[in-house]
Design brief:
single chain, 330 residues, alpha+beta, Jelly Rolls, eight-stranded mixed β-sheet, four-stranded antiparallel β-sheet, 9 helices, binds 2-oxoglutaric acid, binds fe (ii) ion
Length: 330
């Protein structure tokens, strides 16, 4: 059974040990793009993770989206059913126990994927503000992603706009670009019958598929990572107001593993008072346009090395999706 006797002050986290780089985006503009790029470069090569602070996205915008998702989850099941994720696309609502990152462990979370901002899959009735609140936040996260892509171009010394052009179609639909805003809610585990949540997880171990992920979380709630070179799962902890960035698999392939794709998971927290609270998070998965050829040679100082097989972003991501959704392909 889950250990309920662990005291908070005994719990070390990467935040409490100052083991996650913190990148300050205050006043970030053209002149600071090089500095942010260097810091991201160091974070992606050494850790695969960083916290972004002073990023300019207000708490209110983030909270509005969490509130909207709560409203959605309060709707009758037959209304929610209209917005379910269907095979053939990634947009829509995914209820607990459907996704299984490792193909077997029960996952206790609600997710709602938005791949296209004018999508019919964004509820309008009976939640009139849902689309507006989500679009506002999604546009901010898109702008932040574009800034980060520019910073990465500077750090990797590749031509200006190399990454930005290849990510030009974020949130215009997953038939052209797989970028996704994902709302997540992990239900509280209360009155746990023996065996009910045993062996279950909030989100199974995985690496994200795309270029990088931006993650806002409302509380600690069980997020753990494996830092480079270690198999040990470490609690991340919570830095209020910060947005976490982690590197994805596609970027790792693109950079010939110079940039680390971070294995992570969300476990059911051991402490009673944390487990009995629900947890919200919002992930923005930044992906290149599907047609992008992921050519590591373009990013490598070692132009001699030409033997990599070059796949499109679509081919690489499709393989991962088939693994997660039990072989049902898009
Ligand atoms: O909710 C979280 O903290 C992480 C979610 C996540 O890793 C994912 O959906 O890919
Ligand atoms: Fe993830």
């Amino acid at each position: 059974m889950i250990n309920t006797k662990i005291r908070d002050d005994k719990l070390q986290t990467l935040v409490s040990r100052s083991a996650v780089p913190i990148i300050d985006l205050a006043h970030c503009g053209k002149s600071l793009v090089n500095r942010v790029g260097q810091q991201l470069h160091k974070a992606f090569t050494e850790k695969g993770i960083a916290f972004l602070v002073n990023h300019g996205i207000s708490e209110e915008k983030i909270k509005n989206v969490w509130d909207q998702f709560d409203n959605f989850l309060d709707l009758p099941a037959e209304v929610q059913d209209r917005y379910r994720r269907k095979d053939g696309g990634n947009s829509g609502y995914v209820s607990p126990r459907v996704e299984r990152f490792d193909k077997k462990t029960t996952e206790l979370r609600h997710a709602f994927n938005i791949c296209q901002l004018d999508d019919r899959n964004i509820p309008k009735e009976p939640l009139p503000d849902f689309a507006d609140d989500i679009t506002t936040l999604a546009n901010d996260l898109k702008a932040m992603s574009t800034y980060i892509l520019k910073a990465m171009e500077a750090a990797l010394e590749i031509p200006a706009a190399y990454f930005v052009d290849k990510h030009s179609q974020m949130l215009t639909g997953d038939d052209v670009n797989m970028s996704t805003l994902r709302m997540l809610y992990y239900p509280a585990i209360v009155d746990d019958e023996p065996g009910q949540s045993e062996g279950a997880i909030r989100c199974g171990a995985h690496v994200d598929y795309g270029t990088f992920t931006l993650l806002a979380q409302d509380s600690e709630g069980g997020l753990e990572v494996q830092l480079p070179g270690s198999e040990k799962w470490e609690r991340v902890g919570h830095l209020p107001g910060a947005i976490l960035i982690n590197g994805g698999e596609l970027l790792s392939i693109w950079t010939r593993k110079r940039y680390h794709a971070l294995p992570h998971r969300v476990v059911i927290p051991e402490q009673d008072h944390v487990r009995t609270r629900g947890r919200h998070s919002i992930a923005f998965f930044c992906h290149p346009n599907n047609s992008t050829m992921i050519a590591p040679n373009d990013l490598s100082e070692d132009a001699e090395q030409t033997d990599d097989k070059v796949y499109s972003a679509y081919e690489l991501i499709q393989q991962k999706f088939n693994d997660t959704y039990g072989g049902r392909s898009k």
